[in-house]
Amino acid sequence: MTSIKVSFTQPDLQAAAISIAERLGLPVVDAEEVAAISRAADRSVDQAAGVNAGYYLQLDSQGLSLVPVRRKHHGPIRCDFDSGALAHRRKFGGGNGQAIAKAVGVTGKFVPGVLDLTAGLGGDGFVLASLGCRVRLLERNPIVHSLLRDGLDRAAVAGEDDSELADIVSRMSLIEGESRDFLGRLPASEQEDIVFLDPMFPERKKSAKVKKEMQAFHLIVGSDPDAGQLLELAMQRARYRVVVKRSVSADYLAGMAPSYSLEGKSTRFDVFALQRLPG
Ligand SMILES: C[S@@+](CC[C@H](N)C(=O)[O-])C[C@H]1O[C@@H](n2cnc3c(N)ncnc32)[C@H](O)[C@@H]1O
Question: Does residue 63 sit in the same domain as residue 91?
């Protein structure tokens, strides 16, 4: 994992920043130090080549975010369920007609429970919870987990004025840790309706198409080389289906051909159907 420091933008956030840093075992830097390092990074010769100078985990009045040391690189990456793309998709996203809804089998008659073994920033989990699914989310990367925890906590606060958002967030529960260990601890007979996987994919060559946010994720999380093992375990724990999210041009995960695939514009859902859905 790349070296990350925790920063804070105002004095009243210092104590909270220290507690986050202690939990993650990371150093804390204050705003002045951050500004000096960022100025130097912005001026450095590598900038023209687009070299990434790393990230801070920054606590500000809007919560926790990942900000690039080189400020011009891109804006903060935070987990935001209450505004932006996810809020828009919740209101205008096409409901059960979306490929992800069809892939997990949400219908007017049946709404499955979902175990999301690769939570990330919770985007897919939130869409599934918006469709009515109860979603358990597992995330092993401590920094990504912290960002997601913060996003869920802020969404719960925003939910005090938005009962629909409150309902959605109440259907999402986050567990920190390795999914393979979690599955290993479950009683042998325990299954979930749908097991969902969206592992990291090895980074494509420095292509302009790889979004800056995705570059950040590659730096923080790396690729998920053990995703094939996770798929094998998932097959034993899913009652109806395992759904693997891939980029549209990607090979099948671990070379395992699904029962069928549903394609969106840039994303493909590989569906391993194990049993007919109820209803
Ligand atoms: C591509 S991201 C998932 C993005 C997510 N679907 C979203 O909508 O935000 C993959 C995430 O899965 C996590 N992950 C991968 N393998 C895992 C495992 N075995 N246990 C727990 N988390 C895992 C990685 O740390 C990474 O944050």
Answer: no
Distance 39 CA to ligand 1 centre (A): 32
Ligand 1 atom 26, closest CA: 120
Are 74 and 213 in contact by the 8 Å Cβ rule? The answer is yes
Query: Which residue minimizes the CA distance to atom 12 of ligand 1?
Result: 118
Asked if residue 279 belongs to a domain, the reply is no
The domain tally of the chain equals 2
Summarize pLDDT for 179-231 with one digit per residue, the tens: 999 999 999 889 999 999 999 976 665 555 457 777 788 888 888 889 999 99
Q: How far is residue 215's CA from residue 229's CA, in Å, rounded to a whole number?
A: 24
For residue 119, the CA-to-ligand 1 centroid distance in Å is: 5
Pair 91, 131 in one domain: yes
Structural domain including 42 reads 5-68
**132 and 208 in one domain?**
yes
Q: Which two tokens stand for residue 24?
A: 């993650």
For the stretch 42-75, pLDDT in tens is 776 555 444 456 889 999 999 999 998 877 777 8
- Residue 141 Cα, ligand 1 centroid: separation in angstroms? 8
Q: Up-side HSE of residue 217: CA atoms within 13 Å toward CB?
A: 23
